[in-house]
Every structure is written in structure tokens, then in C-alpha cells.
Design goal:
about 250 residues; alpha/beta; nine-stranded mixed beta sheet; about 25% helix
């Protein structure tokens, strides 16, 4: 079984966010970028566990991005991935999914494992789009995965319990909390990451369907207004005049 793990290069959550060009572009100046935690902690680590158990023969990383994102790919190598592919381009979720699916189609992967979402856009759409392009089954927000032969057994959290799903390979899944535990690269892995093969592939047709008009920072936390438990009239009034539905 060959596993493909799409990964994203995202700003560290401790970074101070700002925008440029009249708030139409994310300002990368001074930003530390990291491997998207959902891709790393859940998708990649579980893929490595499948390889270590003998159920997968190879784990390949794939990233759609520019040359400055290569240190993030090397971080994935340090965790044990065998090799990687960088598709040289940038775009929206549709563009990323199309590039990944084109590469997967040409190279015959049995299982594609993505994190449930990225921590910068939180769109949770790339995995489903990849499955759509490939016409593969898709299981979203999987919390457990095991594979026997060509059958994958997965678990998903649902209201009131857990749902067990069986699907046949080839398959695309998005991985959520519970899929695996975070790993820290050891020195051997870090040294090996320097020499693992990284293939650069030119991006295909630039199909972007998202136009950014402007970015804005969130308002942040506001103060909490406390109401006396016996003052129901004031509470009702404030719910009508000040409360906001999110």
C-alpha cells in the first residue's frame, strides 16, 4: 500500500498577524511557518504507524507551494516520511486539490490521508475535493483507521456516539483528533531528513476560483457583562438588544 499525505505550510499560532497592500495580502514578513498540526499529528503520524506495522510500504508527502516552504516538508521527513513532492505554485483550495489529485492519479496511491483542515483558513475542503477529482470514496473527520488488505475500517465521532465505516481502497480520508498521538522528531530522523528525495513538479493549469477582496483581524475578546441572577428583566432586555448570534 502506498500512502500520500498532503501537507500545508501555515503560520505559527503565536505569530503576530498583519496584512499588506491595502489589506488584500497576508504579510509574511517576520512570520514563522510550521507544518499544519492536523496534517502532522494525525495524518502523517498515523501513516507512519501503518508503515511501521507492515501495512504500508511507502509514505510520500505532497505540498503545493513555493520554494520557501521546503523546510516544512523536511520537518515531515524528520518524522519518517520516505520522500516528498513539491508542486511549484500557490492557489486556493480548489487549485491545491486539483494539483494533488493530478499527481496522485499519475502515480497510483492507495490511500490519501489529509488533516481535517488547516489552522489558517479552516476550510476543511481539500480532502473532499481531492476525492471528487479522483472519483474515490471519501471519509471525513476520521478518528481511527485500520487497514486489512484492501478494506479500511474507520471511526467517526457523531452526535451521541461513534460511527464505524468500512470502505475499499483506493480511498481519501481527512483525519481528526484521536487518529494518532503527536510525535517529536528524533536526532536520527532530523539527520536523515536532509538527504531524503524531494521532487519538484511544475503546477498545472491555474484554476483559482477564490478572489480575496480584503482581510481583517478579528475583534478579539470583549469583556463579559455580568447580570444578577435575580434580575431577569435586564437579562431579557440585553438578549434582545445586545446579544449576537454567531
Amino acid at each position: 500500500m502506498k500512502i500520500l499525505v498532503p501537507i500545508s505550510n501555515v503560520p505559527d499560532t503565536t505569530s503576530k498577524i498583519s496584512f499588506a497592500n491595502n489589506d488584500t495580502e497576508f504579510n509574511k514578513s517576520g512570520i514563522t511557518f510550521i507544518l499544519n498540526p492536523y496534517d502532522e499529528w494525525y495524518a502523517l503520524v498515523r501513516a507512519m504507524e501503518l508503515k511501521e506495522s507492515g501495512k504500508a510500504e511507502k509514505v510520500t508527502l505532497i505540498h503545493v507551494g513555493l520554494a520557501d516552504s521546503e523546510p516544512t516538508i523536511r520537518k515531515g521527513f524528520a518524522l519518517g516520511a520516505d520522500d516528498g513532492v513539491r508542486i511549484d505554485g500557490e492557489g486556493d483550495a480548489y487549485f491545491v486539490a486539483e494539483q494533488v489529485s493530478n499527481y496522485a492519479k499519475e502515480n497510483g496511491y492507495d490511500l490519501i490521508m489529509a488533516g481535517k483542515e488547516t489552522i489558517n483558513y479552516n476550510g476543511s475542503s481539500v480532502g473532499a475535493l481531492i476525492a471528487g477529482f479522483l472519483d474515490y470514496p471519501f471519509v471525513s473527520l476520521a478518528t481511527k483507521l485500520d487497514v486489512e488488505g484492501t478494506t479500511a475500517t474507520l471511526e467517526q465521532d457523531i452526535d451521541g456516539g461513534t460511527q464505524i465505516v468500512e470502505a475499499q481502497l483506493p480511498l481519501v480520508i481527512s483525519c481528526a483528533k484521536g487518529m494518532a498521538e503527536q510525535r517529536i522528531p528524533n536526532m536520527k530522523g532530523i539527520m536523515a531528513a536532509r538527504t531524503k528525495p524531494l521532487t519538484i513538479v511544475a503546477a498545472g493549469q491555474n484554476n483559482n476560483f477564490t478572489n480575496v477582496k480584503s482581510f481583517a483581524l478579528s475583534a478579539g475578546r470583549t469583556t463579559c457583562k455580568m447580570i444578577d441572577e435575580n434580575n431577569m428583566d435586564e437579562l431579557v432586555q440585553l438578549l434582545h438588544t445586545e446579544a449576537k448570534v454567531i
